[in-house]
Specification:
Elements lengths: L1 H23 L2 H6 L4 H6 L1 H5 L1 H22 L11 H16 L1 H21 L12 H13 L4 H37 L1 H5 L8 H38 L10 H16 L1 H7 L11 H17 L4 H6 L6 H16 L2 H9 L10 H16 L6 H8 L3 H4 L1 E3 L1 H10 L7 E8 L2 E7 L5 E8 L11 E4 L5 E8 L18 H7 L8 E6 L2 E6 L2 E7 L10 E5 L5 E5 L15 H11 L9 E3 L7 E5 L5 E6 L11 E4 L5 E15 L1 E2 L2 E2 L1 E2 L2 E2 L1 E8 L26
Amino acid sequence: MLDWIFEGIVTWVSSIVSQMMDAVSGLFLDALGTNMTAMEEYFPFVSKAYDIMQYTAWAILFLITVWQLFRVFGGPITEAENPWTLLARSSLFALLIAYAKPIFLITLDIARAPYTALMELSMTAEDFTFAGVEQTLMNGLTTIVSIVSVVGLLLLIILEIALGWNYFKLLLETVERYIVVGVLCYTSPLAFSMGASKTTAPVFKSWCRMVGSQLLLLVMNVWFLRGFSSSVGQYIGNGGALSTGQGSIFLWLFCAIAFLKTAQRFDSYLAAMGLNVAQTGSSMGMELLMAARVISGVGGGARSAGSVFKGGSTATGTGAAASGFASGFASKFKGNSYVRDAVVDGGVRMGAGGTVGFVGRVFGGMAARGGATLTGESISSVASRTANVSGTIAGDIADRSLGNYMPQLSGHQLKNTQIKGGHISTTAISADGKSTAVEMYNASQFEKPDAPHSVVTASDGSQWYQMAAGAGAGAFYDAPTFTGSPAESEMVAATFPGAEEGTVLRTAGEGVIEASSEAGSSMWYNSAYYDEPDAPHTIMQTADGVDWYAMQQHAEAPQFESGEAALAYNQAQFQAFMPGYDQQVSSVDGSQRQEGHFEVRHENGSGTMFYDVAQYAAPRGDYQVFEDVNGGQWYAIRGEAAVERKPVFENGKPVYDGENVKTVSVDTVRYKQTPSRFGDPKPRSHTDMKPPRKKS
């Protein structure tokens, strides 16, 4: 008896759903179209207020023009526009304001062609009524459940309600998109008022892109609704079967619901591609679910407001079902989402909309003022989005919560934090009181910065370019302290993945490391502390993306002896050291080898001075480059034989010949040029925090 009653209730509910779907099928597309008839007749005020919009637009245009002309008196410091060009553009757009609505209607006429073509396209599969859907579902379920038991009836009502639910949501989306086009039409004079000045022209361009995007959505409404209608007719005709012999009622149902959901979210997909579309769509479904949940909570009596959002259960089967629903709802709309929505400025909401969403945000605001923090997931819902849909989180709750999203900041006190799509800024105060301005840019949205930076990973796995400036900026760029012990090889490899095996590091100062290997040693300078040097160097990068300037190792000349007895020894030493130098050498002067250069003399009195390429800039005149036996390179500058008179000294005092200082002729070598020596890298006077370019 109970089964028979339940079957009757389910049949009645399913027939009501199908009849409601049938009643509104095809009504919206024919009634709305691509004209403003429905907009004007349902909302007559907008038509009467259009003249006021025009006068307002002219007033705004006049104020913008006057202000831009006033800026001309500021000269080049104000970057003012050409006044004649400004006046010409203002006159043009004043005329366009007068014809704003006719211009907009011309664009609607352009959209009417594809809209009408899609409407008039004939499809025999659309000759159906929704009243046949529940019977086809029942027949298909009978083959699966064997008999139309309670299980089959439950499946029937669940599947049909899901289908009808999403169909009504799509129809609501269709109407909302039409209303947006109407609003754009009757407020179009305000958009034209922004076109005269270069400063406000981007607003007008964005409006033009939005108009084109919304008209595209208007046409796509027909495509989606007629596509779904043909799908329902095809399903009733063949029960969900495919020409391949596959398919079932469940496959068709899931495809149909997915098609409806895609249609509802198509504006979001267009926005993701860069088109300026209005984000329509209400949370009607969730509002109804929450309303039912609240009513059931009130009916249960003695249930707190918190149980509405967190779920409550009793020992009964009904209580268990409600608890299951509440737990599933809570997993999708967590309490932290409402805290996030309560503090975000602009952007797309995470939680439910409507009345329920408003109540949730009220409680979320109370929690935020009471010291609540946002989870990394909630912050990610803003930071990982693009700036045009993200909104902004700021204030005390942003200061308290950012460490949950950026673990490297968890040990700092934060203030002045701003979190928005792809960009986070804050001021970090370390334990020693040093203050640092920190800017972070999402690596998926921005190009690699030219300025010094590190790469950090957020709690959601996304990577960010981090730049820091201020007294404590070094803490965001420093490498670990190295002692020069070979036992630190694992730490060296973890810090500098590109370092050669066997490299030993020793911290030589703030932002300076001495690197030693079998080939020799060189100094590495942190790019956050030092400007890029002129001397030859390579870039070594830490695991977190900080650049270090690894100076080229200095070439080292052998130890040459002094005195006449060492001539033959020095000649042999030089020939072994510089095998590519084929001119006969008579003597070698290595007294300046520690300065990176030495000299050789030839039999004819001329000479050649050798300078280490790693320590000296290239000479301006003629020179050669030779490579020593160790791989080091040297500039070779040739000099001509010359005679130089030098004063004679005795006991450190000059010797006089009468009134003049006594001199003696000395054979020497005259060089036409001397290369300049590279200086040490210069400390940075400031840290450039110029924002990186956005990816296209």
